[in-house]
What does this fold into?
Amino acid sequence: MLSRYVFKMNTPAENSSRHRLNWKWLHVPAFLAFTAIAGLLITHLEAQAQTTATQETTATQEQPATSESTPSKPEIKPAKPKTITWAQITIKDSYTEGAKPPGLFGELEEKLADLQERITSASKDEKIDGILLTIKPTAMGRATYHEITTTIQKAKAQGKPIYAWVESGNAGDYLLALACDKVFQPEASMLMLTGLQMEIGFYKDMFDKLDIKADVLAIGDYKSAGEPYSRSEMSPAFREEMEELLDSFYGQMISSISRARGISSDKVQTLIDNGPYSAEQAYKDKLIDGLCYESRIEEVIKAAYPDQQPDDLTVKVEKNYGKKKLDLDFEGFAGMVKMMNLMMGIEGEAKKSLLPKIAVLYAVGPIMTGKSIDDPFAGQVLGSDTIISTIEDIKKNQNIKAIVLRVDSPGGSALASDLMWRALEDCGKPVVVSMGNVAASGGYYISMGADHIFAEPGTITGSIGVISMKLALEGLYQKLGINTTVLSRGQNAGIFSMTTAFTDAQREAMKKLSLDIYSQFTHKAAEGRNMDYDKLVALAGGRVYTGDMAVENGLVDAIGTLDDAINKAKELGGIDPEAKFEKLELPKASSPLEQLFGDINAQASLSQRVSHATLVNPLKSQLAVLNSFLPEQLQAFADHLSALGSILTMQKEPTLVIMPYSISIK
It folds into this structure.
């Protein structure tokens, strides 16, 4: 129970600094559990560090034996082999964005920016002659892939060779590898180049069996966020926009392969239609450059230097280049204090700097009123209170010259979206938006007033529309033997009741409310984009677009990465391109204690706003943990339940600007 984990804090009068929290007492069972976790984790890290140390190898060549020299002749020494040093960096799984939590959890987690910095650092390191990217199975959004490939392309511009070794290539892994100079796979591997497939789950038939009615009111012909709950299949409008979305993604895939491999677009389409491929067949079809086991990669690296004889070269591979190593020396009392500080996220006071600053404000997750929540299992919730408070702090800091809003959100509460939009409008500083994997509906709402908007080619954006929805559970209650007696005063008193569907009067009232919000949304979007209102309305209606499509229709200014957005913010903030500056990542991440036990105040606030959160969040947490162990078909079903959980979480919001349906593109 959260109520058992209580921390007593000194009053402001007892505090010597408003930035320092003195824990007066900590519940003993929680403290012991926390310390036990720390001990196990540190033991694992020490073992891992020892294993890594033994695995870091340097390929050396044996010096040829010299014959005994005669007294009359000087000893002739063989020429010393030239040493070539390559940096090895592994790319796998997925990478999140945002400020890192303080302490141990932050040290363990590798963010997208950390990976990019390691690649960039290797490309500029004078001691490094080349880069080897070991690509293991990944699962990232298209914007994240684009960020990494752009980083690789910039690294190539430094003139060093970059090779990719792909363990087992799915489409995303292969697109990453294409940014490198050469691509290699082991003989037994496969290249799963089979095109793209979109899967969208629909729940109406399941609801019918349970006597649950999804009552949906959508403003906009293409505002299809409620269709998975109210229909058994796609409407024509929904199918049309998804077909266009898939066409855009498919076109991006074909052009990337064609450009990187020097193959015509028609030939690429034929190769995709004939996939998947064994690694050997992929090599014959010139989709990769060679077959190689990871243990023999040094022979491949030697071949990158044709002007040198292989025997004259020694290859040194720095494994896990640039990855920060933890200080695991916890001996003695000082070591114990260091360990506890690391676990609790206590850091030294940051050095104050007068350098100009760019604030990178991360807006990640479904949007709701209240405080943001970062659950390590169920994911993030973007709370308007947290973002608005952070914007107010930015506004007061004279050294912050501009804001970069990094958006990765499908939207959510219309009210929360509007409140954050207004705070950004009133901040008095230039605002540049960088769109990540998704910046749609409410995610677009908070972006539309910016001075400049960048999107990644595969960003999903737009979805300018409004939806009102609730699930009526009266039929299910009756099946379970639960009878409900309703007493009310006022014709629309039960408008948000989860027992019954909308009455005609309630539906009319909700339609009027939704139309008012839609009018605000479209007028503010037209003003923010300096676009004729009628043109904006033609692009709205809930329709979604890729980043490439949004640049063409004017909803976005340009294709670009987060770095491009930061450079634009420097320009608008009056910072010289060559001048030093600081990047502030905001909002600050929660401490390890908060990640383990939760932010009690935020959780309480959420439960007050959403009475069933105690049911939804554990469901999502359990699904997140179990998902990796399930077969693919069951993973899809778990994803559908998670999407349904998102809808339930927002049941108390009267109107939504969101695209919550689960889309799986493979």
Remarks:
- The longest strand covers residues 82-93.
- Residues 28-55 form the longest helix (28 residues).
- DSSP finds 24 helices and 25 strands in the chain.
- Residues 1-30, 56-71, 602-630 have pLDDT under 50 and may be disordered.
